[in-house]
Design goal:
The protein is an alpha+beta fold. Helix content is 30%, strand content 13%. It has one domain (2-70). It has helices spanning 2-6, 55-70, and strands at residues 26-28, 34-39. It has a two-stranded antiparallel sheet.
Length: 71
């Protein structure tokens, strides 16, 4: 994670729970742009979506992310 932060490819959320992501799970870079290659689901998205630790929540996030990628 520290390498991603140092390179500006990701930023920790202000609460320290995970990464800053958009509604689709795309990681937000330090310049505010959204990555098309770095995506997050599960615990890394806790700041944006608190329910990110149980299997049903992670499965839903994965399905939504897959739809977004395939469009």
């Amino acid at each position: 994670m520290s390498s991603l932060f140092a390179a500006g490819l990701a930023q920790p959320d202000p609460t320290g729970l995970g990464l800053i992501t958009d509604e689709h799970g795309r990681v937000v870079r330090t310049d505010g742009s959204r990555s098309d290659r770095l995506l997050a689901i599960g615990a890394l998205r806790r700041a944006a979506e608190w329910e990110s630790t149980a299997v049903p929540d992670i499965s839903r996030q994965a399905a939504e992310l897959a739809k977004h990628i395939l469009v």
